[in-house]
Specification:
This protein has 163 residues and is largely without helices or strands. It is built from 3 helices and 2 strands. The chain has helices at residues 21-30, 145-151, 159-162, and strands at residues 2-5, 12-16. It has a two-stranded antiparallel ribbon with strand order 1-2. The longest helix has 10 residues, at 21-30. The mean pLDDT is 92.
Amino acid sequence: MSKIINHKTGETIIEDENLNIKELVEKAVKKEISLEDADLDGADLSGADLRYADLERASLYDAYLRNADLRGADLEDADLRGADLEDADLRDADLEDADLRDVNLIFANLAVAKLIGVDLRGVNLDGVNLCGADLFTAKINQDQLTDLIEAQGLEIINKKEND
């Protein structure tokens, strides 16, 4: 039996004895059941259709979300530490103040995503699409700046070489 509980209250959000956790989460999203504060630590949600999911403050620590469709999802204040979001589609997702420490974002699509206040220090940004993303007050390391600039389709030109 699969069951999703609220990690703050311990109350059951949704359960179904015939579905695995990925199917249960997709069912909840399809029925527009809020997964706010859901405990999804370590869940295998690879390839899941989570478009417009309400995952505000959800705990997705070490969750496997490769190729997941999270377009328009609300992940504000979510705990995504250690999550694998490689090739995930997060276009127009709200990740404001989400904890993204040690997240794998390789080739993730974060176009037009709301990344206000997120901590991207140490996150691999290789191939990430951040076009139009709102990075206001986001934190990144100096060595990530080149990756970020390249992800935006820009090029660094050394002025001294071109004088």
